[in-house]
Amino acid sequence: MRGALLPPQLTAITSTRAGSLTIFIVRRILWMVPILFFVILITFTLMHLAPGSPWDKAGGRQLSDTVVNNLNIRYGLNKPVPQQFLLYISSVVHFDFGLSYQYQGKTVSGLLLESWPYTATIGVLAFLLIIPVGVGLGVLAALRQNTRVDYITMGFATVAASFPNFVIGALMVVALSVLAYKATGGNFFLPAAGFGVDDHLIMPVVTLALLPIAYTARLTRASTLETIRQDFVRTAWAKGLPERLVVIRHILKNSLIPVVTTLGPTFAFLVTGSVIVETVFSIPGIGRAFVVAIESRDYPMILGTTVLFSLVIAVANLIVDVAYVFIDPRVRLT
Predict the structure, then answer these.
(1) Residue 254: how many CB atoms within 10 A of its CB?
(2) Are the C-beta atoms of 145 and 228 separated by less than 8 Å?
(3) Distance between CA 281 and CA 279 in Å, rounded?
(4) How far is Cα 90 from Cα 21, in angstroms, rounded to an integer?
(5) DSSP-derived secondary structure letter, 63
(6) In whole angstroms, what is the distance from residue 303 CA to residue 276 CA?
(7) Topology at the third CATH level for domain 108-327
(8) Do residues 311 and 36 lie in contact, with contact meaning Cβ atoms separated by under 8 Å?
(9) pLDDT digits over 278-332, tens only?
C-alpha cells in the first residue's frame, strides 16, 4: 500500500537492496542535522549557565574591567545570549567555528586539525586491537567452556572491566615507566608522556583498549555459546566437518551480530575516553584540548570539540548499521 503512494521511479529504487540501502544512508545523514543542532544548543546553554567567564584571571592575572569589556566586544560576548547562539549557528553552517579565546589569533578549525591526528592514531590503533583480541578471547573461552582457558580468559576480562582508564594508566606509568626504569637502570622503560611513533603509543593504546577488550570478550563468549547450541551447528559437527571450518563459517559469522552492535558505542567510548588517556599521558590530542578548553572556558573550542565528537559518534553508528546488511542478509533496512 505504501509503495502505491510513491512515484514509480522511487518505488523501483526502493525495491532493490542497493536502493534501499542508499535511501537509508541519506535519511540517517539528514537526521544528523537536528541531532547536531540540539547538541550545540545544550552545550551552548550549559556553558553560559556555568559561573565565571573566559576572562577570569586570564594568563594568571586579574584583568581590568576595561580590558574585559573590550574582549567581550571583540568576541561578541556583549550581545544577548540568544543572539550569540544564532550567530554561532550561522557560522557553523558555513563551517566556521570561530576563534579560540585561549590561543589568540588561531581558529578552532585549525586547532582541531592540529590535534586530530594524535587522537585518531590512538583511537584507530586501540580499535584495531579490540576487535581481534576481544573476539578471539571470547570465541576461545566459549569453545573451551568450563575449562582452565575459560576461567583465565573471563577472569582477565572481569579484572580489566573493574578498573577505570585513569587507574589503569596510572598503574602502567608506575610499573612500566618508574619501576621499570629503576629496575633496569634506565635500559628498558616505556615513556610516560608525549607522543611518538614507537614505544610512546604502547601504554596509551593499551589503556584505552583494555576495557572494551574485556567487554567484547564477555559479549562474544555469550553470543558464541548461544550459537553453538543451535541445530545447524550440531548438524555441522555431525557431518564431521573440521573444527576450523565449523567455527569460521557457522559459529563466528552468526555470533558477530551482537558484537557488531556494540562497535558503534565502543568507538564512541574510544573518542570520549581519549579525554582521560590524553590527559594522563600528556598527549596533545583533541581530548586534552577539550579538558584545557573547559578549564579556561574557551567557548568556541568547547563547542567545536563537542560538535566533532558528536559527528564522529553519529558516523560510527551509521557505519555499524550498514555493516548489518553485509553480515546478515536477513536484516532489512526500514
Answers:
(1) 19
(2) no
(3) 6
(4) 32
(5) P
(6) 18
(7) MetI-like fold (1.10.3720)
(8) yes
(9) 888 888 888 888 888 888 888 889 999 888 888 888 888 888 777 777 766 666 6
**Grid coordinates of 297:** 572556558
What is the structure's pLDDT at 133?
A: 92
DSSP letter string, 194-240: S--SSGGGHHHHHHHHHHHHHHHHHHHHHHHHHHHTSHHHHHHHHTT
Distance of CA 224 to the CA centre of its chain: 25
CA 238 vs CA 139, 235, 253, 254: distances in Å: 20, 5, 19, 19
Check: CB of residue 108 under 8 Å from CB of residue 95. Answer: no
Tell me the C-alpha distance between 258 and 253, whole Å: 11
The per-residue pLDDT for 170 is 85
Domain boundaries, the chain: 108-327
- Is residue 331 within 8 Å of 254, Cβ to Cβ? no
**What pTM value is reported for the model?**
0.78
CA angle (129 as vertex; 126, 132 as ends), nearest 5: 150
Residue type at position 167: V
Q: How far apart are CA 81 and CA 102, in angstroms?
A: 21
DSSP letter for 58, please.
G
- The amino acid at residue 65 is D
* Residue 320, all three cell numbers: 555499524
Closest alpha carbon to 115 in 253, 291, 332: 291
Residue 156, judged by CB atoms within 10 A of its CB (0-12, 13-18, 19+), counts as middle
Q: What is the pLDDT of residue 1?
A: 44
User: Could you tell me the mean pLDDT of each successive run of 10 residues in the chain, 334 residues long?
Assistant: 50 61 83 90 88 68 76 82 89 86 84 86 88 90 88 89 84 85 78 69 88 90 86 79 77 79 77 79 84 85 88 83 70 60
Cα separation, 175 vs 189, in Å, equals 9
Q: What's the residue count for the chain? A: 334
Judged by DSSP in three states, 21 sits in helix
CA torsion through residues 195, 200, 203, 206, sign: positive
Instruction: Write phi, then psi, for 107 (nearest 5 degrees).
Output: -85, 155
